[in-house]
Amino acid sequence: MTAAGLYLHVPFCTSVCPYCDFAVTIAGPQRRASYLDAFDLEIGRATARGLRFDTVYLGGGTPSSLGPGPLGRIVGRVRERLDVASGAVWHLEVNPEDVSPVAAESWRDLGFDFASLGVQSFDDAELAFLGRRHGADGARRAARTLLDAGFPTVSLDLIFGLPGQTRDRWRRQLETALELGAQHLSCYQLTVHDGTVFGRRHRRGELDELAEDEQAELYLLAHEILGAAGWESYEVSSFAAAPHHRSRHNQKYWDHTPYLGLGPSAHSFDGRTRWWNRRKLRLWAAALEAGESPVEGEERLDDEALFAEAVMLGLRTAAGIDLGRLRDRFGAAVAVVDEPAVDRLVAGGWLVRDGDRLRPTPPGMAVADAVVRAVLA
Ligand code: SF4
User: Fold this and answer.
1) For 234, phi and psi rounded to 5 degrees?
2) Atom 8 of ligand 1 has which residue's CA nearest to it?
3) Which of 65, 195, 251, 359 could form a disulfide with 320 if both were Cys (CB 3.0 to 4.6 A apart)?
4) CA of residue 17 to ligand 1 center, whole Å
5) Do 126 and 216 fall into the same domain?
6) What band does 27 get if pLDDT is binned at 50, 70 and 90?
7) Measured on CA atoms in the order 337, 340, 346, 349, is the torsion positive or negative?
């Protein structure tokens, strides 16, 4: 059986960034303590699933803000109570303000292999716009500290498509990441979500989003610069200096491998059914303390829905989709794509067809959602 992925959600942040729509909270020591107790309970409940994991991902929120003691407690409980393979990749999301040589060493000692650093930008004005708590110097220092600590993979998160961001400004972010020696980059387009500070500013007409063609231009610039440096783009937002630096955990989301999510708002998937936990820390913890499941809802996917997802997720990866394998998996009546649309996308340079395999080109990745809609129409 393929090993599953384990996701652990740490919902705490020191302040909430104006563009963030994740399940995060600013909580004092008491709520953090009750979170850790509830986490123990949820890990205990998870043992009954009998899953074996070969990736463990601590995300948030800001897992690095927990400090080595609480982090060590979570890691210890997972190792004690769940079946984690000995070669599993342990992945930690880190914010620059939590990084010091001592902290980095403690994360390595706990067994973390893959550190994702939320630098977002190396430009003070951009960081101020994004409401981040660190500056450009702090971002550079944190990246160097993680690299010096010997993590097998150090990944940097960068945001592009800020209002008014020029090609040169974006180029400088990418070049700085390369100069620092990062081995993986996650490049996210700035998205304005309802319910965030940016969403409210946008509604009031105080915040303009960059036009779609300008966004696409910046996205393609990342392909150009990183490609010239020998990097690979293996998923729409993910770039690796070499194949062994790819995120093995995220790959599970893209190819429908089962994963189990623990913590408030965490999502899980068993190959057919997706379920998700209560989003609010208080309600998630209360359910567990009462001896109840913290799951808020679930959705069973029929073959049509699974096929559509497989196309959507697959066409966001450089490997693309294999229509022959999808027909074997779902049957020829379900695994149907719009062939004339595929031909048009191939002729237009958005897709490449190689027998049964369809792969997105960089321009296709830049408009991945539109490509998927056309293929499934
Ligand atoms: S640090 Fe990350 S998770 Fe926390 S508020 Fe900012 S964007 Fe959201």
Assistant:
1) -105, -5
2) 20
3) 359
4) 5
5) yes
6) confident
7) negative
pTM as predicted = 0.95
Give the amino acid at 329: R
The domain in which residue 12 lies consists of: 4-253
Q: Compute, in angstroms, the gap from residue 186 CA to the centroid of ligand 1.
A: 15
Distance from the alpha carbon of residue 19 to the mean position of ligand 1, in angstroms = 8
Statement: residue 1 has pLDDT above 90: no
Sheet holding 267-269, edge to edge: 232-235, 238-240, 184-189, 153-160, 114-120, 83-94, 52-60, 4-10, 259-262, 267-269, 273-277, 295-300
33: domain CATH number is: 3.20.20.70
Question: Which residue type does 156 have?
Answer: L
DSSP strand pairing (153-160 vs 114-120): parallel
The number of folded domains in the chain is: 2
- The set of protein residues with a Cβ atom below 6 angstroms from ligand 1 is 13, 16-17, 20, 22, 24, 60-62, 95, 118
pLDDT of residue 29: 86
How is residue 127 written in tokens?
């960081």
Q: Are residues 316 and 176 in the same domain?
A: no
Protein residue with its CA nearest to atom 7 in ligand 1 = 20
CA of 35 to the centre of ligand 1 (A): 18
What pLDDT is stored for residue 242 in this prediction? 98
Per-residue pLDDT of 241-294, as tens digits, reads 999 999 999 999 999 999 999 999 999 999 999 999 999 999 999 999 999 999
Give the distance (Å) from ligand 1 centre to CA of residue 99.
16
Q: Which residues contact 297 (CB under 8 A, 6 or more apart)?
A: 275, 276
Residue with the two structure tokens 């630096």 = 245
Last residue of a domain, one of 220, 238, 253: 253
